[in-house]
Amino acid sequence: GENVKKFAHKLGVEVGAKHTFLTTSATTALWVSLKALGIQANDEVAISDFSFPATANVVEDLRAKPVFVDVNFDTFNMNVDDLISKITKKTKAVIFVDAFGNPTGLHEIKDICDDHGIPLVEDAACALGSGEYDIPCGKISDITCFSFHPRKLLCTGEGGAITTDNDELAKWLESRLLHGAN
Fold first, then answer.
1. In this predicted structure, what is the pLDDT of residue 158?
2. pLDDT greater than 60 at residue 127
3. DSSP character for 150?
4. Which of 2, 16, 43, 141 has CB atoms 3.0–4.6 Å from 122's, for a disulfide?
5. Does the annotation mark 18 as catalytic?
6. Which of 92, 110, 139, 152 is catalytic?
7. What does pTM read for this prediction?
């Protein structure tokens, strides 16, 4: 209802995102985001090897292949050099996990993704309110996914969200998340 719409709007304003969509969980947000990007069987999705199992599960659920990227031991976030070494022609997306809510290195990973024409999905399940270089999580990546699970910074009992500035992705998300009834 109206409270959900207000919450989505306020979240979008808070992170500076053009489009915000609420989901049942961060896992759902990740899965739907990969669907919006057209990830399908046999595609490769590079993901941090230090994450909650849902990050890999959503890739496997789409019959794509998770390619595990080592993390930097100072930040526990994706290691730039290892990511570069694992990008192939089959790499169709990268999921960056903000370990412990820390997005350090996100801009550098975004630059690599941009250089290779690969979309960046940010698993910001624990990172609401965090940012890098004064830019909030939810504004940096092509798609960002948040969690409102009871163990997260902001709890709504359950739930998740997707933010993006990409109009085409937003159009797809709006249609699919409302079962085409928009």
1. 63
2. yes
3. T
4. 141
5. no
6. 152
7. 0.90
